[in-house]
Every structure is written in C-alpha cells, then in structure tokens.
Amino acid sequence: KDYNSAIRWFKQSDRDFANAKSLFGRGYAQHFMGGAYSNLSKDDEAVAAYTLAIATRKDLLKAEPDASYANDLFTSLNALATQYKSMAKNEESLAMYHEALQHAKANLVKSSVADAWWSIGILYDEAWKNYPKAIEAYESAFTEFLSIQVNDSSSAITIKRNIANDYNKLKKREESKQAIGEAVSLARTWGNLPALAYALDFQGFLAKDNKDYSQAIVSYQEAEKIYTQLSNTEKLISVKDDFANTYLYAKKYPQAEAK
After folding, report:
1. Which residue, 123, 127, 4, 107, is CA-closest to 61?
2. Alpha-carbon distance values, 169 to 48, 83, 215 (Å)
C-alpha cells in the first residue's frame, strides 16, 4: 500500500475541503491521514493529524449536533488513544480513552461506552499489569454489552474470558473459575458455538493450570467436539495437544497416547 501517496492525497483533500468550508470533509481527510502516518510508523505526524481531526470533528458536532458526527468524533478519539498506546505513552493513551468514554456517555452511545471500557481494561492489563483495575474496566464493558448488545455474545464472552484470566493471575482461583463458568453459560444460552468452544477451551486451560485435571478434561472434550463440528482444523489440533498434555499431567498415559 502506498501510504505516502495517500498522505499527499489526504493533504490536498484537506485543503480542498477547507476552501469548500466543509468540516465534515476535513475531519475525514485528517483522520485518515493520521492512519496513513501510523502505518508508516511516523508517530508524531500521526498524533498531529488525529489531533487536528478531533478538533475539526468537535467543531462540526458543536455546529451540527448529529449522532453520526458524534460517532466520527469517538472514532478519532479512540484512534489517538490507540496511537499513544502503540508509542508506549500510556498515560496519554489512558487520558484519551477516558475522553472517548466521557464523550460516548454524553452522547448516549452505549456501544461506544462498552468499547471504551474494554480498551481501558486492555491498557491496564498490558501496560501496567494492574489486574484489579483491568477487571473493574472489563466488568463495566461487560455490563454495557449485556444491556445493549445481547446478541453480541462473542464480545461479552471474550471480556469474561479476560476477567477470568486476570483473576487467575491474581491467584483468585474461585473468582476466575466463576468468571469463565459465566462465559460458558452465556455461550450456551445464546447458542454461539464458536464462542462456546472458545470459552470451554480457556476453561480447560485454567483448570489444567490449577491442576484440576478432571475439569480440564471435561472442558477440552466438549471443545474438541465443537471444533470438529465447526471444521476448525487449527483449533482442533491445538485442543487435542492440550488434551494430551492434560492426560499426561493426570498420569492417564494411554489416553494421552491416543490423543
């Protein structure tokens, strides 16, 4: 992809939209310019372009309150937060994610509220390994997803998986077990087979990690059946390997060999 040519085009577009007094057009040109700079690892230029896009989109939303313009502004706020995260400017990233969160709340965009909380949780997880704060953010995201996106079971289940993982890292085994159990139950209720296999697979991992080999075997066994049903060869091979290792840890050598 020729990002340098794209940047030249976006700059010209920005000038043309400025002459046409189109804040809408300028916001798009500046935002996508930021993305092009980011893809070229020109971090300072990406920050500058996203910052321009945010200012332009704030002006547009003030002049013409509209749900789609509010969503565009959230997209740019989120993009700048993510850009800062990629630069390991974690405090700046957190501040931008919180600005995106407050913007989403103010404009009653619940799906964006959920996304912002999710991003904040990931940042606490990855940047600071602050698992209690990550769990708090994930729980807020989960609550939002349940309230507005009951059919988006994959997102809700992934968040519960993250919560279970963080509790496990904190050695809070019962809380971890409960969280992944909720993910499995939700996937069953919603009939989402890929998400169910995903949750069961991770339930097996957590059980194995905590030497609960009987539970691990039960979880892996059901995950294996679903992966087979879904013809997901990559995941099937992976779960069979985990299955075999679990049998070895449980000293069930014939079953391990069979896997």
Report:
1. 107
2. 37, 27, 19
pTM: 0.93
Cα atoms in the 13 Å half-sphere on the side-chain side of 190: 23
Environment class of residue 154 by beta-carbon count within 10 Å: exposed (0-12), middle (13-18) or buried (19+)? middle
DSSP 3-state of 26? helix
**What single DSSP character describes residue 64?**
S
C-alpha pair distances (Å), 117 with each of 77, 96, 145, 255: 13, 12, 10, 43
pLDDT in tens, 72-121: 999 999 999 999 999 999 999 999 999 999 999 998 888 899 999 999 99
The tens digit of pLDDT for each residue in 243-259 reads: 889 988 887 756 666 66
As a whole number of angstroms, the distance between CA 29 and CA 64 comes to 19
Q: Read off the tokens for 14.
A: 């920005």
Q: How far apart are CA 57 and CA 100, in angstroms?
A: 13
What's the start-to-end Cα distance of the chain, in Å?
Answer: 44
